[in-house]
Amino acid sequence: MTASVKLLSLATATPPHDLAQDDVFEVAHRIFISRFPEFVKMGPVYDHAGVRHRQIARPVDWYLQPHGWADRAAVYDEVALDLFCRAAATALAEAGLTGADVDAIVTVSTTGVSTPSLEAKAMTRMGFRSDAARVPLFGVGCAGGATGLALAYRLAKAQPGAKVLLVCVELCSLAFRLEELSKTDIISTAIFGDGAAACVVSSEAGAEGFATVTGCAEHTWPDTLGVMGWRVGEGGLAVVLDQALPPFVRREIRPVVEAMLARQGLGLEDIDRFICHPGGMKVIEALEGALGLGQGALDHEREVLADHGNMSSPTVLFILDRARRAGLPKRSLLTAMGPGFTASTVTLEAA
Q1: 276 is catalytic
Q2: H helix runs in 218-327, sequence order
Q3: Is residue 222 within 8 Å of residue 335, measured between CB atoms?
Q4: What is the reported pTM?
Q5: Which among 142, 199, 216, 276 is annotated as catalytic?
Q6: Per-residue model confidence as pLDDT tens digits over 31-85
Q7: Dist CA 348 CA 264 (whole Å)
Q8: How far, in whole angstroms, is CA 138 from its chain's centroid?
């Protein structure tokens, strides 16, 4: 008999430094206008990004100083580990579990490099067992919330009775840089923020959660490596972001999602709610159009983008958290896109 995999809990965490979009624009204008004349034309990006606030790892003055790999890595180790533990502890508490109950830990993060990885550094603090499986996942970027949940689901399904902790942590602000300037660097200051999300999935008999995971799928488009990712420079990681992404989404996402659902015996008409990673306002609008949802349908996506910015992998789990608090319908499809270029989906049925 196939094990049923339940989503037992979900928690989010953000760093303490809240930054209003108006303040971001003022700072960006001050530092970019003399070095990047095209900034005048790009100013409206801050108004149209759909972001009102975002939370970042350090006070804004930190980002106005030059920082190399060592500085950025030290901040990542400190802040990402703290966010990991805060989100994980809250998710475990909601599930009525402790770190010692966890059989496997999936850690998703693409905005920093830590070896040993974050879950290893959190072992003592979280009380994880020494025989817990550690599965760090790097390089999936914005798709990581969906890809990580799909992997946690597969691990729990493969070992009936297992309890799997998923933690997504990203510090996108560490890619803000003054040394090199491009349109992409400026766009990144308008949309990206920092945050973490964690959830517990379990295939334990009799486990009760707020949703059942019933399937997952993934699609990678050929010859699309340049759509999204990181460029490695002397000062750290820099964003690669193709400005043609919204048209790509409008053109490509619907047939791919239809094929993913068809493999589960489902169609678009069987999905009551789409829970989508909001890469930005234009991507939200492109998703609504491509999937035939109607303008404004992705309301939780707009709210999370406005309150936190695009946090990369945890963002779609922030949206799932809002959706479940509002009341999940019978069937939802969680979806996110990221470097590869890849789309990942997870199918959920409300408890």
Answers
A1: no
A2: 245-262, 281-290, 299-308, 315-326
A3: no
A4: 0.93
A5: 142
A6: 777 677 777 777 788 888 899 999 999 998 898 888 888 888 999 999 999 999 9
A7: 12
A8: 12
